[in-house]
Design a protein that fits this description.
By secondary structure, the protein is mainly β. It has a 22-stranded antiparallel β-barrel, surrounded by 4 helices.
Length: about 1000
């Protein structure tokens, strides 16, 4: 290897770990013990340093997964690979629109080492930063990387800010392209998944060595087919077993309150209740569950069958790179990437809950104090027919009905007629491109250099649908439709049309086919009227990143007992951009108020936009600069004891300021068999631009028996979060046996978190219902975070949304142990055999108490072995691991792998006994305790690889051989999407032909 090519390899891995090791035993440990499954991936240079001459046989705390290893595992997708990593928790990639941490990210996938949060894992491609995706997590999307061109993946499970800077606080994952590929490779694969049309993918890879120049080009396509929630029985949990599993008392077939002239009931108001709340009689015939919410009759609606476990996705990537030896000792590397992920038919429930209610501008009933709902006059044809069909429910003198907002959604059992009478549909489309170049070489005085520049951008266009509050209310009064004037039009005449909210407008359950005996075509709703008030809400979000690096390295003029003292110094400049644009109805600068679509007014007290459920967005055009400098020195004290010192200074300017982070690492070769290693240092993460911007985004979270809008606002006063990290480990290597054991520890100060909405809600409303601490002076500031309808009356039933902020939160501390062991045997029954296991055991994940508005909303808690629902952290099972056995004979390779995730606990109290649910008569029914313990999840995968004649490889893969369902959890989909896999047993065949 020439000096220049060696240094190119060093820069490509860009300091994957911050300590130096040496010796043949360590080399074997790195080559085999750090690889998932022990597969040989050829020469792997893992140095962890910009210092030229660092030993290539370094043993590092990094998992190296090569292309051949991935092939032997059946070529898992990035999401599957990351979920199976024992050191990874809380992975985004499967659809999970019911958790704020995943909403709007369909089509993207992130890495979350140690469960510290995806934004705390730095993602590199060929040693250079990847732009963060424009999603709530603020983390790179690994689905955009060119899978066909990846030669190996290196996962560093240690803080690396001293080398990399911000975002490497929890670790680093580096995707490295194939090296020295010469020829043509064509691949096609199909995966059978029960209940869907299956997944398929293919790629073409071409490489050529022209002497001074070598080129690599790849193109790949992946398709995922839609897998409906209805295709998995574990998602279909009865209401009385687990009402949290996809059930809502907010329904189009809902409870309503007959109202009439206030004089009839001794009230001066023009409208007042003339009977109690009445449940629509169409509930049970259409497939709903008649129930009570406290003393309120309700109809529970199962909304998740309209959703998908896997969304339809089409993804392709084009990638090319060239390496040119422009002169002896000087090499230019250039690469370009274009990538696209299209989710064209994202599915959700037919419509959302009415969390916002009309004002007096469109609803005459508001002045009567019934402000948190919708008014239906008695002249509405659906009302008239319903009263005729059910004369005992509505008095003859009633002049209308009031629909409580949190119990109402305009479309449910009948589906959405704008999308084939089933789910409402939206779309997400990610589009990214990247250009990177670096020049490496050596000056005549022996000093090496690496100059690099990388630009990347990621754009997300996201479209959904929701009802416009003012238009819906007008349609209930017969003043709906294009061309109808709400001031001069006549209800139900000409262009003015009625919307019927009663069950007699619904012919049948769109999913089950259950028919409604009270349906009448005469009062059925017009799809064009629905199209008028059910409008798209769109956002166009873009992140951009420019990084330039300059590194010099060489040797000092003296030696220590183990050799020459090496050094490296460098500087980096980063510029980041974030842009957000919204369509007119979603843009809070254009349409800030409920009544803006009707009156054009932009003046209102609450600026949440015009939609029932979804909040609006504030356009943003943000940018920031980061300047950094770093230095490192390697100190080979003896042949057996070596140390490395590294330090980095970063300046973010403005209110964020600067940070300095040192790191020390040491390796000691104790004997030919054993070596010890250890690191200690500080690491940090600066607030992303989106968190510094005071604008808001809206998430949807299940609180108090219904989904509520939760507005999350940025905070320009944020400070960088910091952490002190250390690790100590032991490496063993002898013959065919290699093993490592490492203890790791992260101690965070001022972590960047979103205030825990679950704790905020349960502090004001300890029982999850009623008025709780409303009006209590000690909770007045906390109560100000809540937005209520009906004149602002504080109660769970009247709650519409909650305001939260990104803050520097309480101290977090986590630690644990990584264990990896492999044993390889030659000449076993004429072939080679290998056995191995790797696991991560998390000992502690403690979070100190969280205070909001002077009130403790979340006491200190221990996150290990818990679901951690609606807290600031993800699910953290105490241990994850996998073990494999592999046998190779001639062209045949057989592999069986067992994956295990330990059980963990749902620490919430409200979903479990002694809580009860109520049946149609109001009688209470005991609830099972199932789901408090989320059981362990163990799956077995089997793969056969045949290296066939004609340079062809055939791979047959069966994942989840025993078709094990994910363990039950009291969440919307019946399982934990961050942790488990819902696909069941799958079969995959892949054929690769090389020319």
């Amino acid at each position: 290897m020439t000096k220049s090519s060696f240094f190119c390899s060093v820069s490509a891995v860009a300091a994957m770990a911050a300590f130096v090791v040496a010796g043949p035993a360590a080399a074997q440990a790195t080559q085999a013990a750090t690889q998932q499954g022990g597969t040989e991936v050829g020469e792997v240079v893992v140095t962890g340093s910009f210092i030229r001459g660092t030993p290539e046989d370094a043993a590092l705390p990094v998992d190296v997964i090569g292309a051949e290893e991935l092939e032997k595992q059946g070529s898992p997708s990035p999401v599957e690979l990351i979920k199976n990593l024992p050191s990874s928790n809380g992975v985004i990639g499967d659809t999970n629109q019911f958790d704020a941490r995943a909403q709007g990210a369909e089509g993207a996938a992130t890495v979350n080492l140690r469960g510290l949060g995806a934004s705390r894992t730095l993602v590199l491609f060929n040693g250079r930063r990847v732009v963060t995706a424009p999603i709530g997590q603020g983390a790179p999307d690994i689905n955009l990387l060119p899978q066909a061109a990846i030669g190996r993946i290196e996962v560093l499970k240690d803080g690396a800010a001293a080398t990399y800077g911000s975002d490497a606080i929890g670790g680093v994952i580096n995707f490295i392209t194939r090296r020295n590929f010469d020829g043509l490779e064509v691949n096609g694969a199909y995966r059978y998944i029960d209940g869907s049309d299956g997944d398929w993918n293919g790629h073409v890879l071409w490489g050529k060595d022209f002497g001074a120049v070598n080129v690599l080009l790849s193109g790949s396509y992946q398709h995922r087919s839609e897998l409906s929630v209805r295709e998995r029985d574990f998602t279909q949990v009865p209401y009385f077993s687990s009402p949290e599993t996809g059930w809502s008392t907010g329904n189009a077939v809902t409870a309503f309150l007959p109202v009439g002239p206030g004089a009839l009931v001794g009230s001066p108001a023009p409208f007042a209740p003339v009977a109690g709340l009445q449940r629509d009689v169409g509930c049970a015939p259409l497939g709903g569950q008649p129930t009570f919410s406290g003393t309120t009759p309700a109809c529970a609606f199962n909304y998740t069958p309209y959703d998908n476990l896997v969304e339809k996705e089409n993804r392709f990537q084009l990638y090319g790179e060239a390496n040119w030896e422009i002169a002896e000792g000087h090499r230019l590397h250039v690469e370009g990437l274009y990538s696209e992920t299209d989710t064209p038919e994202w599915a959700t429930s037919p419509s959302y809950l009415a969390l916002q209610a009309p004002t007096s501008t469109t609803s005459p009933i508001v002045t009567s104090g019934l402000a948190a709902g919708y008014f239906v006059p008695s002249t509405n044809p659906g009302f008239a027919l319903y009263r005729q069909q059910n004369p005992t429910q509505i008095p003859a003198f009633a002049t209308g009905a009031y629909l409580p907002g949190v119990l109402y959604r305009p479309l449910s059992f009948g589906g959405n007629p704008l999308f084939g009478d089933q789910s409402s549909r939206g779309s997400r489309k990610f589009e990214a491109w990247r250009l990177s170049a670096n020049l490496t070489g050596e000056f005549g005085n022996g000093i090496g250099y690496d100059l690099a520049a990388t630009y990347m951008e990621d754009n997300l266009v996201r479209i959904g649908y929701d009802a416009v509050v003012s238009r819906l209310q007008l349609a209930l009064r017969g003043l709906g439709g294009e061309g109808c004037s709400p001031t001069t039009g006549t209800p139900g005449v000409g262009p003015c049309r009625w919307f019927n909210p009663f069950s007699n407008a619904i012919q049948a359950n769109a999913l089950t086919g259950q028919t409604n005996p009270n349906f009448s075509a005469a009062v059925a709703n017009d799809p064009e009227l629905i199209r008028w008030f059910f409008q798209p809400t769109g956002s166009d979000l873009t992140t951009r990143l420019l990084v330039t690096d300059a590194v010099l390295n060489g040797e000092l003029g003296f030696e220590l007992g183990g050799g020459a003292v090496g050094w490296a110094v460098g500087a980096q400049y980063r510029k980041e951009w974030y842009e957000a644009e919204y369509d007119a109805l979603t843009d809070l600068n254009v349409t800030p108020c409920i009544d803006t679509p009707v009156t054009g007014t932009t003046t209102c007290t609450v600026r949440n936009g015009p939609f029932l459920f979804l909040g609006g967005g504030t356009p943003a055009d943000l940018k920031g600069d980061v300047w950094a400098a770093f230095a490192e020195v390697s100190l080979p004290f003896t042949d057996r004891i070596q140390a490395q010192l590294a330090a980095r200074y970063e300046d973010f300017g403005g209110a964020v300021g600067s940070t300095f982070n040192p790191k020390v690492s040491v390796r000691w070769q104790l004997s030919d068999m054993f070596a010890a290693r250890g690191t200690i240092g500080t690491t940090f993460r600066a607030p992303p631009l989106t968190q510094l911007d005071p604008g808001q985004v809206t998430s949807l979270q299940f609180l108090g028996g219904a989904f509520r809008a939760v507005d999350i606002s940025g905070n320009p006063d944020l400070e960088p979060e910091e952490a002190t990290t250390y690790s100590v480990g032991l490496i063993a290597s002898t013959g065919g046996f290699q093993a490592t054991i490492d203890y790791w520890d992260f101690d965070f100060d001022n972590p960047l978190v979103t205030e825990p909405v679950g704790g905020i809600f349960s502090t004001l409303f300890p029982t999850g219902s009623g008025t709780g601490n409303c009006g209590n002076p000690a909770f007045a500031a906390l109560q100000s975070r809540f937005v209520f309808g009906a004149g602002g009356v504080c109660s769970v039933a009247n709650l519409s949304r909650i305001r939260t902020f990104v803050v520097n939160g309480p101290r977090v501390k986590t630690n644990g142990i990584d264990v990896l062991a492999n044993y390889r045997m030659d000449d076993v029954w004429g072939g080679d055999a290998a056995f191995g296991a790797t696991l991560t055991y998390t000992l502690e994940y403690s979070v100190e108490a969280t205070t909001v508005e002077g009130v403790v909303v979340s006491p200190a808690f221990e996150g290990v072995n818990h679901l951690n629902y609606q807290t600031q952290i993800v699910p953290v099972p105490d241990w994850k691991g996998n073990a494999f056995v592999e046998y190779t004979t001639g062209p045949h390779n057989f592999r069986v792998q067992v994956n295990h995730i330990a059980s963990y606990t749902d620490q919430r109290t409200s979903p479990f006994p002694p809580n009860v649910v109520q049946n149609a008569t109001g009688a209470t029914l005991p609830r099972s305790n199932e789901g408090r313990k989320i059981e362990a999840f163990t799956t077995v995968d089997a793969t056969y690889r045949w290296q066939a004649p004609w340079d062809t490889t055939v791979v047959l893969d069966v994942d989840n051989v025993f078709d094990t369902d994910p363990p039950f959890a009291r969440l919307d989909l019946g399982y934990d999407p961050f942790t488990a896999n819902p696909l069941g047993r799958t079969f995959k065949v892949s054929v690769t032909k090389r020319f």
